[in-house]
Design brief:
The chain is mainly beta. The chain has helices at 58-67, 78-86, 162-166, and strands spanning 6-11, 17-22, 40-42, 47-56, 71-72, 101-114, 120-125, 140-141, 151-159, 171-175, 181-188, 191-192, 198-199, 204-205, 214-219, 222-228, 240-242, 250-252. This is IDD protein.
Length: 255
């Protein structure tokens, strides 16, 4: 902008005048949104998480998560699980268990290998190709499990009361996969533009933040190679307001 220009002169070689322009430099910006609306971001895994409250059986829950480019959540370490347990999931009254306890389908299945004297089996990650290494401990068997089923589906039980949540109290259930339950989806962090749209890899966009004049490239869910525009203030207007979502768009507040 004209008001930011500071012109200076110095003598170059041969006596000619060299002119320098010092203009405002864009300051580093911390981008606050790496997940779509309704999702919770965890820096440790560069992932987004969301609880869906509409009760679905396990297989329908898998498909719902896939439609939003995610999968039923699995965990890589205790720190990630503690992050999940500490969240407020905006849970409504319409839930499928007691109000103080929340159970969600997650991306594990319990395979029963022996039914003789007691149930024996082991956890597996429910979808192929996963590199997850965290597997839950022995489960509590849900009341709806069938004697004919050899594969049960994993539920993570969280607690509604803050003191219980922050102490990390939780349980793992192996339940009949056709029971209906809320579920927890996980997806990679993504680029979100200033109008809350999801941006695909490699595309230009204006990141969500307080500068509508940034243009960045989406790379691995992060804005990179950002270019900033500097706007001249509107001519003939003493008082004005910048549009928070449109670059160089002003509203004149003069009478």
């Amino acid at each position: 902008g004209k008001e930011n220009v500071d012109s200076r002169h110095s003598r170059g070689r041969g006596g000619e005048t060299t002119r320098f322009h010092t203009v405002s430099v864009a300051q580093p910006v911390r981008f606050s949104r790496k997940c779509p609306t309704g999702w919770h971001h965890y820096e440790g895994t560069a992932s987004c998480y969301r609880v869906y409250l509409n009760g679905e059986n396990y297989w329908d829950a898998v498909q719902t998560c896939q439609r939003v480019n995610g999968s039923l959540a699995t965990f890589t370490a205790d720190q990630e699980l503690r992050f999940i347990l500490a969240q407020e999931w905006d849970l409504e009254e319409k839930t499928f268990v007691r109000k103080d306890q929340r159970r969600f389908w997650v991306g594990y299945q319990y395979v029963i290998t022996n039914r003789n004297h007691s149930l024996e089996g082991h956890w597996e990650v429910a979808y192929k190709g996963s590199s997850e290494v965290f597997l839950p401990p022995d489960p509590i068997f849900g009341p709806s499990m069938s004697e004919r089923e050899n594969v049960l589906c994993g539920q993570l039980q969280c607690f509604h009361f803050p003191t219980l949540r922050h102490h990390g109290l939780h349980s793992w259930y192996a339940e009949n996969c056709y029971e209906k339950s809320s579920f927890l989806c996980k997806r990679s962090q993504t680029c979100v533009d200033i109008k809350d749209n999801i941006v695909d890899e490699g595309y230009y966009f204006t990141p969500k933040g307080n500068d509508p004049c940034l243009s960045c490239t989406c790379h691995n869910g992060e804005p990179e190679m950002c270019v900033a525009a500097l706007c001249e203030r509107p001519q003939g207007c003493q008082q004005y307001r910048k549009d928070p979502k449109e670059c160089c768009k002003f509203t004149c507040l003069d009478p």
